[in-house]
Specification:
5-stranded antiparallel beta sheet, 567 residues, rod-shaped, 4% helix
Length: 567
């Protein structure tokens, strides 16, 4: 790759406006030529600002206006012209002289930032024109001799080959027409060359694709316009910025080269990458970047992550002057979304937008990225239950995704309305909450009588809030043993008004466990609350009384109570 460089010794404070003038050294030259934009690309010139803000000019040895001495020595006089906002111009002359440092190869290919250039030796004419000499085409504007030149372009057809690449078809144009389409075609003493700016008509792109973390580039192993058999296969190697990379360096950078079915596929890491999720955090790297690129902000939605507690952001420098950025965020951070996938798996997602600033004009570039980690770390809710004197006591252990679930008791969603209707008692703890469902309350199902006593059940279901899938079901069976008595007393037929809540058994401390306007419910063991036992005709009879005990002033109490009682 042979070109004339001119770089960082120019003052970085000078603001050049992509405007070059050339004073050719050829004897027949006639003045100064001005080039910029498309014309500079077609003639083989590239002018950019490097990462330090310095102006860099690169010119092909075969560029227009270069004084070429038998393709071995090259001279060029350049005028850098700065035009300020008022239109005033300041010129900076520079004389460049370069000898040929490396011998020309039979075929030279230059892929610059703004143009492509191919040159080949003239010693071997095309196979069907053996014995003929190359004829130097006259200048484009002369119109002489152009009919003798033809350019054959190979362009993609409509059909594709087995390797996925399109079949190529040929399109032949006169040189004059090729010049009009933006192609520069010429010869030197030993070489013939073709140059065109990117985006020229008849040029095509080998498309790259992305799979989220890598850029995929697939192309034929043998580019038929460039390689003629026989040839020797020396393997595949990857190069960056004109330098081959060793296999070790390529692996360290994550480059992967595969060959299959006559095609080559290169995978290059790009953008954000997630590290080992077992660490319990996202570790996202973004880069590599030259010194003129800096990270301005990181946002999730409209929130800046740089201002978040628990977010770690750092810049990682590298020996070659580039740098990357490292973002670490725990899975538990509130900006990390979570989704339960079933079978104990959970997906953590972090969708961020990196805002990069590019010097020297502080141009902003927004790069959205989403990183995900799927881990089997979900602890499902767990229900435990047992019997109490007042009914069934349930404990719901939250697990580690408590906001994901809905709890149902007897087919009813457990909410405050059910708690009030069923007279449930709730108690909250850090890892669980408990609920006591009273006997004969909402949610209870009665199976009948057995030798062990009255059998009641309560069914608790935990469902995924999004999918309504039952993740856990618990059924508690309660058997009231034969050593207990359950009594419902209906006092609606009593002539005088009686408040069921002011009733008790013979033992005044044995009060109803539940009442309404006309009934009282008692549950007590047979050897308590003043219960007496008698044997009548071979049957054991347990007897107790329900008494009405209203609250009256002590001075109005009499020795004998006039209030009703039930046996």
């Amino acid at each position: 790759m042979n070109w004339i460089p001119c770089s960082s010794y120019l003052d970085s404070g000078i603001n050049f406006n992509n405007f070059l003038s050339f004073s050719p050294n050829q004897p027949d030259s006639s003045g100064v030529h001005t080039l910029s934009g498309q014309g500079a690309a077609e003639c083989g010139y590239t002018m950019v600002l490097d990462s330090w803000g310095d102006l860099v000019l690169r010119a092909s040895y075969l560029a227009c206006h270069v004084d070429n001495e038998k393709d071995t020595a090259f001279r060029l006089l350049v005028w850098f012209v700065n035009r300020d906002v008022d239109g005033e111009e300041t010129s900076y002359p520079l004389q460049l002289t370069c000898p040929l440092r490396q011998p020309w190869k039979p075929r030279e290919i230059v892929c610059e930032e703004n143009y492509m250039e191919v040159s080949a030796m003239k010693e071997v004419p095309p196979a069907n024109n053996k014995g003929l000499e190359w004829m130097t085409p006259p200048p484009v504007w002369s119109g002489e001799g152009l009919r003798e030149w033809r350019v054959v372009f190979r362009v993609p057809g409509d059909q594709q080959g087995s390797d996925g690449s399109p079949y190529m078809k040929e399109k032949t144009l006169p040189v004059e027409m090729a010049h009009l389409l933006g192609y520069h075609i010429n010869t030197t003493e030993t070489r013939v060359l073709l140059r065109c700016a990117y985006g020229s008509r008849l040029a095509y792109i080998l498309q790259a694709s992305m799979d989220g973390k890598h850029v995929l580039w697939r192309f034929p192993k043998v580019l038929s316009p460039l390689v003629q058999p026989p040839f020797r296969d020396r393997g595949l190697r990857v190069g960056v910025e004109g330098r081959y990379l060793s296999d070790c360096v390529a692996r360290q950078r994550g480059y992967d080269i595969q060959e299959q079915d006559g095609a080559v596929e290169i995978r290059i890491p790009f953008g954000a990458e997630e590290t080992n999720p077992s660490e319990g955090q996202f570790s996202v790297s973004l880069g590599l970047f030259p010194p003129d690129v800096s990270l301005s902000n990181i946002t999730v939605g409209d929130q800046s992550m740089a201002e978040q507690v628990g977010v770690y952001l750092s810049q990682v420098p590298f020996p070659n002057g580039t740098h990357a950025y490292l973002l670490k965020t725990p899975f538990s951070h509130r900006l990390v979304s979570q989704k339960y996938l079933g079978q104990g798996y959970r997906r953590y997602s972090l969708a961020v937008t990196f805002t990069l600033s590019i010097s020297p004009h502080s141009d902003l570039y927004h790069y959205p990225a989403t990183v995900e980690a799927v881990i089997q770390d979900v602890v499902l809710p767990r229900v435990e239950g047992g019997c109490s004197d007042k009914g069934v006591r349930l404990q719901l252990h939250y697990g580690n995704m408590d906001t994901q679930w809905e709890v149902y008791v007897g087919g009813r969603r457990l909410d405050w309305e059910l708690v009030e209707l069923g007279d449930y008692a709730l108690e909250s703890r850090q890892d669980y909450f408990s609920v006591v469902i009273p006997l004969y309350g909402l949610g209870m199902a009665y199976e009948g009588l057995t030798l062990q006593g009255l059998v009641v059940t309560v069914r608790v279901t935990v469902e995924d809030r999004e999918t309504a899938i039952e993740e856990h079901t618990f059924t508690q069976r309660l058997c009231l043993p034969d050593s207990r008595m359950v009594v419902v007393v209906d006092i609606s037929s009593v002539s005088s008004a009686v408040n069921p809540r002011l009733t008790s058994l013979l033992d005044p401390s044995c009060v109803p466990i539940e009442t309404d306007g006309a009934r009282a419910l008692y549950s007590f063991s047979l050897d308590s609350c003043g219960t007496s036992t008698t044997l009548e005709e071979g049957d054991l009879v347990y007897t107790n009384e329900v008494r009405y005990r209203p609250k009256v002033p002590i001075d109005l109490k009499t020795l004998s109570s006039p209030y009703p009682h039930f046996r």
